[in-house]
Each structure stands twice: as structure tokens, then as C-alpha cells.
Amino acid sequence: MIDFHTHAPAWHTASWLSGAGFDTGDFVAFLDSAGIDRAVVLSHDGLFNPTPEANDELAAFVGACPERLVGLGTVSPRRPGALEEAERLLTVLGLRGLKLHPWLQGFSPHELALDPICETVGAAGGIVLSHDGTPPYSTPAQIAALARRHPRVAFVLGHGGLHDCWREALACTQETPNLFLCICGTPPYAARRILQQAPPDRVLFGSDAGLSQRASQDYAVARVLELDGWGITDEQREAMLDDNPRRLLSGEWS
Ligand SMILES: [Zn+2]
């Protein structure tokens, strides 16, 4: 099983999660206990404060276990040097793409400064995963419009529209060949409909593990167990948890 949406600890973020106390070893122990072979790890601090240092710390976290952990760094297109930082995190840090969080980072997916950044990620065979499901700046249709401007770059809706926008996420995925939908935080009734109606080769699963200040990842364990209640078939399970994420991570998705 490949979990396509997890987070590094909130080392610095001033929130209820600040000072998260788990390291790479603790995180891999959780993956083992939940039956997860590999995980895509997204920044946490960097979503609140997208700095090169946040990407450095994420790279160190995943670099301690590169055979199990794949990191996606982050930049904000409104910050000076964002394009150079996107290049650096791909080439120097070995991260595999970007996590954008327009809602927390305060930009619109329509901003043109994103275009060279997305092309840089695509040229490296990387992935652009965006938070979605929370208007005004993170609706699935906005992310899909960005994906359509870059048809050779793989984009991922990180939350499948969450509670409010999952129908829009499903429709956008059906209409946009380079857009994948990660079921993560999406309610179970929506997950069932997505599995029935989305292109089967573009559905992913994520647990949001890492959103805890403790080494135990109870929420993520519950999300993995919930899969059994979706009425998921063996074919759907294999596509969502294995084939699709593996193709996407290898760059052979189109
Ligand atoms: Zn998340």
C-alpha cells in the first residue's frame, strides 16, 4: 500500500500540533503497523511558512528512510525566489515535486507566477499536489484549471474535495486527463461514489498521517481501517493503493 498524503511533524508551527515529537523511525514504525509500504510526505511547517529551511527539514526527514518515504516540498508563488527554490528542492534536495496550499499560503491557483514553477516540476518528472476542498482559494475547479494550463504535468487533488467540494473534485477529475484525485479526509459516502465514477487509473488514497503531536497516529490508522467499509473491490484496492501511486511516482502516468 502506498499512502499518498502524509505529513512531516509540525516542528515550528504555532498551532495545536506545535513541537510534534516523532522522528523518522517512529513514523516508519507507524507505516509498518498500518501495512503501508511507502508514503508521500508533505511539509507541515512549510505550509504555514514556505521557506527553504522548511524544505531542508522535510528532505532530512524523508532522507533518513528514502526507500520508504518520498517528499514533496513547497513554495509560495508570491515569495521572491520561488522558482529558484522549486528548482533547488528538486535537484539539490531530491524532493519529488510540490505540495501547494493556496488556502493557507494565501494565493490563487490562477496566479501566473505558478506557470514556470509547474513547468519546472514537470520537466523533472515531478508531481504538483495541491490542498483542495476549502474555498475560496482551494476549490477543485481552480486546481483543475491550473492542471489544464500544464497538460504534461501530473497534478493531484490532495483531499478529493473534502466534505464540501467532492462532487466538483470528481467532475474535474473526469474532465482533466492529467489530474489525479487523492481520497484523504473525504467522507466515506463520497469515497464510495468517487470509486464508482472516477477514472479508476487516477484515484489515490491518503491518510493524513503526521497530523499528530505524538508518535502514535491514531487518526491515520482509523482512515486505513475505514477502507474496508467502502465496499471496495480487489481491483479498486490494487489500483488505488498500489498501481496508480507507483505509476505516478515513477513518472509513467500518462
Ligand atoms: Zn494534509
Task: Please supply descriptive tags for the structure shown above.
single chain; 254 residues; alpha/beta; TIM Barrel; five-stranded parallel sheet; three-stranded parallel sheet; 14% strand; globular; binds zinc ion
In brief:
This protein has 254 residues and is α/β, with parallel strands linked by helices. It is 42% helix and 14% strand.
Please give the CATH class. Answer: Alpha Beta
Q: How many E strands?
A: 8
What is the radius of gyration computed over CA atoms, rounded to a whole number of angstroms? 16 Å
> What CATH architecture do you see?
Alpha-Beta Barrel
Helix content: 40-55%
Number of domains: 1
How does this model look, in words?
The protein has 254 residues and is of the alpha/beta class. The protein is built from eleven helices and eight strands. It has a single domain, classed as Metal-dependent hydrolases (TIM Barrel, Alpha-Beta Barrel), CATH 3.20.20. Helix content is 42%, strand content 14%. It has a five-stranded parallel beta sheet. Helix 4 packs parallel to helix 6 (114-123). The chain binds zinc ion. Zinc ion binds next to strand 1.
Helices and strands in order, then pairings?
Blueprint: E1 2-7, H1 24-34, E2 38-42, H2 45-48, H3 52-63, E3 69-72, H4 82-91, E4 97-100, H5 102-105, H6 114-123, E5 127-130, H7 140-149, E6 154-157, H8 166-175, E7 179-183, H9 188-197, E8 203-205, H10 218-226, H11 234-250
Parallel strand pairs: 1-2, 2-3, 4-5, 5-6, 6-7, 7-8
Helix pairs in contact: 4-6
The structure holds zinc ion.
